[in-house]
Write a structure and sequence with these properties.
heterodimer, A: 537 residues, mainly alpha, Cytochrome C Oxidase, Chain A, globular, disordered N terminus, B: 205 residues
Chain lengths: 537, 205
């Protein structure tokens, strides 16, 4: 460590010496801040693997026919890419990293309600990740079903599915434990004076997310167990040959996996709702509307799963119902966008890296959201189902939404987490390249889908060639931006200028403790007086 | 740097109870998925489900139901005994619960064994040649749901045994009863699920 920063590091969670030294000190620590970093680094490794797989797929699609890999390899690529990115990155992403780090500090607590359980959740997460990876490394045949494990193919294929399915189940278990921990933490450990109406918005969204994790994940858990049992014993529940119904699998899968989209996006919205007031130096516009729309999204999000199955065979009545509900869920999301824009209005805007990320989040999130309405409309859905359009929409929402918010949050809270500032110029360059690359990568896919290019094929017709080249070029630019961002942050963590307590003039409680925070977060538990609250500028 | 940090022993009985209830909620939803599948298939194959249910032994089912109900009572009594500080009675009641749980599992073992002897098990050729699809589904669900329930019994027993050890070494006592209370809650959940499984498989016509 640099001499210059000795003072600010003293007594911080990064320096604190517990029972063990070095790595062992980290993987046995129940400090929520250390667990957050454990998650962050494990996710970073997995994210790089997932991103490389994505890069490989785009390289294959640079020309029609076989370019660099066989059809079966391509199937394995999109399956493993999907499983890693969905179950290990975007679902746990913001809650496990920033939720763990910031939730206790933002509500004025010393730790989460169950610190040991918190550490166990991380181990369960790692176990799940190892199981999934082992399905790639061992056995014959990498999983090739897509991340959705659709029956009956998932128990008919010769590929090594069992570890992947169990891995997804185990990852779900970790997610449930984290959600449970956060809910109890928020109920029991808020500091004196922090009523529900004074809780910052990021914890609010974590609360909504916790409930979705709790209520939705068990359903996919049992569904995955059934697929595994189907593979091992042939119980018949999803096997049409034995009287089972594969469509029922799809229902059960999406009853979880659609709300899972809101597990991904709600904490992302929460992070954005913290960043925008800080960089507008203004009270967040419509605090209550943001809270209410968070809960509305969590609630309505349960009843829209059928829109993944419009072409799978369901009655007209259910199609209408699911379509209308899908439109309804867009309203609370739009309310939030309105609130963010209104927060900026007449604010004194401080254009910094997190703000760039937040604004570009709103931009790509709106494209993703509006294209979601196109897919939610019945007639358009029949035409666009299983085309590249769906892939584009999905990546605009999940990668554009959650991914951008993750980077926004990372650049916002980085000084707090590591106690050092990053180089803003390089961070902005990385963001710009990433943003341009992102649009070039996924934008053409909307067009390709409209023209009828199906998803999940390693090959395509000659007429789709030029748009695919553009898309592949975009993937290179985006990854280049990503490399700049990561290298810049690593450099900053080691050599950056020591960060002040409150570099952005934020008003929530994490900006009142030293950067990096001490082990117990607060010397004295903070308190809100009657007139006080977050976002008072 | 060796600054000593005093994590004052954080004990929040209310919090741990909320946590346990939430966890129980997820368990109910886990089985909820299975109940959903059961009702869909029962609706589609009413006659076959009726026919297949005739194969099950109602006597063993009833005995097992009574056993679990009594065990729920004994674990509830042990919690009360702990609160009153009667350590010996607490431990005795816990042992009774564990014994009853094991008797339940033994019964289940013989019940399953008999089915296997008759060629009724998932993937059996006998089933594929002699049974309708509805009956195969019934037994598929029967083995999955009672099997998963048995697994929960085992987890419940382990929890009670952990609580037993913690009571004997004094870390769980009248003022810190959370662990036993939560183990008891979990045991009630296991009981509750059986209360639904029993009529669904053994009684309904």
């Amino acid at each position: 460590m640099q001499l210059s920063s000795q003072r600010s590091y003293e007594g911080s969670y990064l320096e604190h010496q517990g029972k063990y030294k070095g790595l062992l000190g980290w993987i046995t620590s129940t400090d929520h801040k250390r667990i957050a970093l454990l998650y962050m680094f494990s996710m970073m490794v997995l994210f790089i693997v997932g991103a490389l797989l994505g890069l490989g797929m785009k390289l294959e699609l640079i020309a029609p026919g076989k370019t660099v890999m066989e059809a079966q390899t391509y199937n394995a690529f999109f399956t493993v890419h999907g499983v890693i990115m969905i179950f290990m990155i975007v679902i746990p992403g913001l809650p496990a990293v920033f939720g763990n780090f910031l939730l206790p500090i933002m509500i004025g607590a010393k730790d989460v309600a169950f610190p040991k359980l918190n550490l166990i959740s991380w181990y369960v997460y790692i176990l799940g990740a190892i199981l999934v990876i082992s399905s790639v490394l061992f056995g014959d045949g990498t999983p090739d079903t897509g991340w959705t494990f659709y029956a009956p193919y998932s128990f008919k294929t010769g590929a090594n599915m069992l570890p992947a399915i169990f891995g997804a189940f185990v990852l779900g278990f970790s997610s449930v434990l984290t959600g449970l921990n956060f809910i109890v933490t928020i109920h029991r450990l808020r500091a004196p004076g922090m009523t529900w109406g004074k809780m910052p918005l990021f914890p609010w969204t974590l609360y909504g997310t916790g409930w979705i994790q709790l209520l939705a994940t068990p359903i996919v858990g049992i569904t995955l167990i059934l697929v595994a049992l189907e593979r091992i014993f042939g119980i018949g529940v999803f096997d049409p040959a034995l009287g089972g119904d594969p469509i029922l699998y799809q229902h059960l899968f999406w009853i979880y996996s659609h709300p899972a989209v809101y597990i991904m996006i709600l904490p992302a919205m929460g992070a954005i709702s913290e960043i925008i007031p800080t960089f507008s130096q203004k009270h967040v516009f419509g605090y209550k509307a943001i809270v209410a729309s968070t809960l509305a999204i969590a609630f309505v999000g349960y009843f829209v799963w059928g829109h993944h199955m419009f072409t799978a065979g369901m009655s007209n009545t259910s199609q209408y119902a699911f379509s209308i509900l899908t439109f309804l869920v867009a309203i609370p999301s739009a309310i939030k966008v309105f609130n963010w824009i209104s927060t900026m209005y007449k604010g004194s805007i401080n254009v910094q890296t997190p703000f760039y990320w937040a604004v570009s989040f709103i931009f790509v999130f709106m494209i993703g959201g509006l294209s979601g309405l196109v897919l939610g409309a019945l007639t358009a859905n029949v035409y666009l189902h299983d085309t590249a359009f769906v892939v584009a929409h999905f990546h605009f929402i999940v990668f554009g939404g959650t991914g951008y918010a993750f980077f926004a949050a990372l650049h916002y809270w980085f000084p707090k987490m590591f106690g050092r500032m990053y180089d803003a110029k390089w961070a902005n360059t990385g963001w710009l390249l990433f943003f341009i690359g992102f649009l070039t990568l996924y934008g053409p896919m909307f067009y390709l889908g409209m023209m009828g290019m199906p998803r999940r094929y390693y090959d395509y017709l000659e007429q789709f060639h030029s748009a695919n080249i553009l898309s592949t070029l975009g993937s290179w630019v985006m990854v280049f931006g990503l490399v700049i961002i990561i290298v810049n942050l690593f450099r900053a963590a080691k050599y950056g200028q020591p960060a002040p307590v409150n570099p952005w003039n934020g008003k929530t409680w994490e900006w009142t403790v030293p950067s990096p925070p001490p082990v117990e977060n607060f010397d004295k538990i903070p308190e809100y007086k009657e007139k006080e609250g977050p976002y008072e500028y | 740097m060796s600054q000593v940090i005093h994590h004052e022993d954080h004990y929040d009985a209310e919090g741990s109870k909320i946590g346990m209830w939430l966890f129980i909620f997820t368990e109910l939803l886990l089985f909820g998925g299975l109940f959903l599948i059961y009702s869909v298939y029962r609706y589609r194959n009413q006659d076959a489900f009726h026919l297949a249910a005739e194969e099950l032994d109602r006597t063993i089912g009833t005995i097992n139901t009574v056993i679990l109900l009594i065990s729920s009572m004994t674990i509830a009594m042990s919690t009360t005994a702990l609160q009153k500080g009667q350590k010996k009675i607490t431990l005795l009641l816990m042992v009774t619960t564990v014994v009853l749980g094991i008797v339940f599992l033994v019964n289940k073992y013989f019940e399953w064994g008999l089915k296997f002897e008759h060629g009724i098990f998932p993937g059996s050729e006998h089933m594929k040649t002699t049974m309708s699809q509805g009956e195969i589904l019934f037994f598929g669900l029967y083995f999955v749901m009672t099997g998963l329930h048995a697994l929960h019994i085992i987890i419940g027993l382990i929890l009670i045994l952990v609580a037993y050890v913690r009571i004997t070494n004094g870390t769980v006592h009248a003022n810190r009863p959370s662990l036993l209370e939560n183990a008891g809650l979990y045991w009630h959940l296991v009981d509750l699920i059986w209360i639904f499984l029993f009529p669904l498989f053994y009684l309904i016509h």
